[in-house]
Specification:
Elements lengths: L1 E7 L5 H18 L3 E11 L2 E10 L4 E8 L2 H27 L8 E9 L17 E12 L1 H11 L3 E6 L5 E6 L5 E4 L2
Parallel strand pairs: 1-2, 6-7
Antiparallel strand pairs: 2-3, 3-4, 5-6, 7-8, 8-9
Helix pairs in contact: 1-2, 2-3
Length: about 190
């Protein structure tokens, strides 16, 4: 497994990097035999340290966790504990959904745009009705079943996931509703 351990505006020592590799490796080995790479980012927010961890599994799923603490090791340990809880909770579902899958999840490439909001403009009236594009980037659209899409969205902690439905071969969306339930858009 490849690790990318970085710090935003803080130095990450060898001891912390070794601790991250050992602890994260133990959790992933316990619940998932197929991790490909993991990214751990440490930053400082006022008096607290923040640890964000994203692990990519060969099945195409991503597991993400984030934690805050007053000490950097405590922030990482809390983050690993959240990751452990997520993987433990979804271990059975991961096995059930991927036992028949012989290959990793197929990804299509798509464009993702970030549009300027109303508060971003200094003018009272825009010149055109077209929104201003602030950023444009490539994004991957996985081919999943609806259950896998919901699981991917929950593991990644994302509010919405766009995916290609394997059964109907169309683009679908799952999202977290305001009432806490999951919504599914199948055009």
């Amino acid at each position: 497994m490849r690790y990318q351990i970085t710090g935003k505006h803080i130095d990450i020592g060898e001891a912390l990097q070794t601790h991250v590799r050992d602890e994260l490796g133990n959790v992933l080995q316990k619940y998932s035999q197929r991790p490909t790479d993991g990214t751990v980012i440490f930053s400082k927010d006022a008096h607290e340290y923040v640890c964000e961890t994203v692990v990519h599994l060969s099945s195409g799923l991503n597991a993400a966790a984030k934690a805050h603490a007053t000490e950097i090791y405590a922030a990482f340990d809390a983050c690993v504990e959240k990751m452990d809880k997520q993987l433990r909770r979804y271990k059975r579902r991961l096995k059930d959904h991927h036992k028949d899958r012989a290959e990793p999840v197929e990804h299509l490439m798509g464009s993702s745009y970030i549009l300027a909001g109303e508060g971003d403009s200094h003018e009272d009236e825009p010149e055109t009705l077209q929104p201003m594009i602030v950023a444009e980037m490539e994004t991957k659209i996985p081919s999943l079943s609806v259950g896998e899409a919901v699981m991917q969205m929950e593991l990644a902690g994302a509010p919405v996931l766009v995916f290609r439905n394997e059964k109907k071969d169309g683009v679908n969306v799952v999202y977290r509703r305001d009432d806490g339930n999951i919504g599914w858009i199948d055009p």
